[in-house]
Design goal:
Length: about 180
Amino acid sequence: MSFLSNLLSREARRAITSVVDQTVTDAVRKGLNQFGQGSSSPANTPSTTTATQSKTAAQPNQAATVRKQTAVGADPQTIDNRIQSVLTELNRDRIDPATILTLRSSVPASELQANPEARDYSYGVYQNGQPKCMIMVLTNRNDYQRRAVRLSHEAAENAGVSCINLMTHLPNETSYISQKIQESL
């Protein structure tokens, strides 16, 4: 009986994930269409704007498609730049060295006494040498469900540290990243 219930719950989870993914994709597309076929600010796609503009004369439909695809998600390098700019902004008014936030990349999960199977954190935000927030940049839409990711979240929770997922298929605007980090502090 437990096999059947596990199978049903797994299928229900897949169905819910599929519906959520489709809803988010539809909402993003609707927003892109509402704001001029997905035009993006230079901060979102610095390198694709010029490439798109050069293709516009020869292939206008393909250029619009490229612009839509690049405006929706944020590659790991863009996310890295945004995280660094958020920390710079958060540290701007901090005078006391004990309140300065520092950013470390590739933080081993074992630092928070995680299970050896746990996934390492992409970034860690530290204050006075103590972890305050761990960040995981996930490139696959379903990575957040993986056991290794859940083990990392569990370890952070047990250590009293918040853990944030940033998914590359979502926009991850600077304001969103700033909000999530400030909430975790």
